[in-house]
């Protein structure tokens, strides 16, 4: 309960912060209306201003006098209050209404507030000087019969002080806005520098990968090619050819990754498609050609899925087959891809030979499995990996494929897989 009230209070504070100027205008308009009415009635009853002079001329008619009091003493302050609401967008309206109040009733309060508002919110200084001269002339004519001290006092507190205070507040507000704009510009420049540093780091990583990984893989491909040519055993030739083909594919994929990482001007982004579920047939056939016993099944209702989802499932199967070949040679591997109504499930189970169950430990999860978990997290899925009761090792990935994802699919599947 307390937390809900705190959230509502925070929302109210943010709303008030965003609309503080509008709320201030409403407060000033409503709060000033009674005082402007009181000043107008005082001016009429005291014979100050044109309305006061008019009342002195028609004091024999009480009906006409009451009508003038209601129309002039109540409606004119209402116009002043309405002009206060738009004083930031239409400062001339408030200046004109204040001048009318000063002429009709000799009330200087609206004039002082109008000069202050104009000095704060309007950059037109010439218009401010013109209105100040008009107010000064009306004040001198209105109080011409009074003492000089009264005239000086009226000019000081009605014209000079509000205008000086408004100019100071307006200048300070502009200074704060300029400082805020400068801070935002510096923040944008800092973000650009950070992006530039990130791009430079990506280029450095791409260069390091090219110098180290690509060089080693190229040497492996060359040696495999030489072995394929010079070997006499048929099995050795076949294995060397498979190593050479796999190395070339790895180099092609590495080249695509380097193209993404590099930020060289004029370089085009790689356009080769990334592997998806329709490429599982080639992956399984390559594993079988390497001597692995792979049983592949596709169940459920195969359908087009978002490319990111299919790439993630493909990488799960690829990494699982690689781990099985590395840590459990000779194992029987079962690959199952199930298209559910709301989720895609990819399961890879490797069963080591009986003579290796007791002697060899199950494959341990290393950086490959950690990378798979990160991939699954990006698409909102989960990954579990671990030994089963019979000594087999299972990798199971579940990726949600709700209606929204199916609608957003970016491509059509090239194939549905096979059953072996």
From TrEMBL:
In Swiss-Prot or TrEMBL terms, this protein is called histidine kinase
Q: Which GO terms describe its cellular component?
A: membrane
Q: What class of enzyme is it?
A: transferase
Q: Where is the chain membrane-spanning?
A: 23-42, 62-85, 92-116, 147-170
Q: Name one Pfam family in it.
A: HisKA_3
Coiled-coil positions: 169-196
EC number(s) on file: 2.7.13.3
List the GO molecular function terms. Answer: ATP binding; phosphorelay sensor kinase activity; protein dimerization activity
- Record field: catalytic activity: ATP + protein L-histidine = ADP + protein N-phospho-L-histidine
Q: Which CDD domains match?
A: HATPase_UhpB-NarQ-NarX-like (cd16917)
Q: Which residues form the Signal transduction histidine kinase subgroup 3 dimerisation and phosphoacceptor domain?
A: 201-264
Q: Which lineage ranks, top first, belong to the organism behind this chain?
A: Bacteria, Bacillati, Actinomycetota, Actinomycetes, Streptosporangiales
Keyword terms, alphabetized:
ATP-binding, Coiled coil, Kinase, Membrane, Nucleotide-binding, Phosphoprotein, Transferase, Transmembrane, Transmembrane helix, Two-component regulatory system
């Amino acid at each position: 309960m307390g937390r809900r009230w705190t959230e509502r209070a925070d929302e109210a504070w943010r709303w008030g912060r965003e609309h503080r100027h509008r709320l201030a205008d409403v407060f000033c308009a409503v709060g000033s209306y009674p005082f402007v009415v009181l000043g107008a009635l005082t001016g009429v009853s005291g014979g100050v201003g044109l309305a006061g002079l008019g009342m002195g001329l028609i004091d024999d008619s009480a009906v006409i006098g009451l009508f003038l009091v209601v129309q002039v003493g109540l409606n004119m302050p209402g116009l002043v209050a309405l002009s206060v609401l738009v004083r930031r967008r239409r400062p001339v309206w408030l200046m004109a209404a204040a001048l009318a109040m000063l002429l009709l009733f000799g009330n200087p309060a609206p004039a002082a507030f109008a000069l202050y508002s104009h000095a704060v919110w309007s950059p037109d200084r010439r218009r401010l000087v013109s209105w100040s001269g008009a107010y000064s002339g009306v004040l001198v004519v209105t109080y011409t019969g009074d003492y000089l001290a009264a005239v000086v006092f009226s000019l000081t507190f009605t014209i000079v002080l509000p205008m000086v205070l408004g100019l100071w507040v307006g200048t300070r507000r502009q200074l704060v806005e300029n400082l805020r704009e400068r801070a935002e510009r510096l923040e944008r420049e800092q973000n650009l520098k950070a992006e530039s540093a990130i791009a430079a780091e990506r280029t450095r990583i791409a260069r390091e990968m090219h110098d180290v990984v690509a060089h080693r893989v190229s040497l492996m491909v060359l040696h495999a090619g030489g072995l394929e040519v010079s070997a006499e055993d048929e099995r050795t030739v076949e294995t060397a050819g498979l190593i050479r083909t796999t190395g070339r594919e790895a180099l092609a994929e590495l080249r695509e990754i380097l193209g993404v990482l590099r930020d060289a001007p004029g370089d085009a982004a790689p356009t080769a498609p990334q592997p998806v579920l329709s490429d599982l047939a080639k992956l399984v056939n390559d594993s079988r050609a390497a001597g692995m016993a792979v049983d592949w099944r596709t169940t459920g209702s195969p359908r087009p899925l978002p490319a990111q989802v299919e790439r993630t499932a493909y990488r799960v199967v690829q990494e699982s087959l690689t781990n099985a070949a590395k840590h459990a040679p000779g194992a029987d591997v079962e690959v199952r891809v199930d298209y559910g109504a709301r989720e895609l499930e990819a399961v890879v189970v490797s069963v080591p030979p009986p003579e290796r169950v007791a002697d060899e430990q199950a494959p341990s999860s290393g950086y490959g499995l950690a990378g798979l978990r990160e991939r699954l997290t990006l698409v909102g899925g989960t990954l579990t990996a671990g030994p089963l009761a019979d000594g087999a090792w299972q990798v199971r990935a579940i990726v949600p494929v709700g209606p929204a994802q199916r609608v957003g699919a970016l491509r059509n599947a090239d194939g549905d897989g096979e059953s072996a």
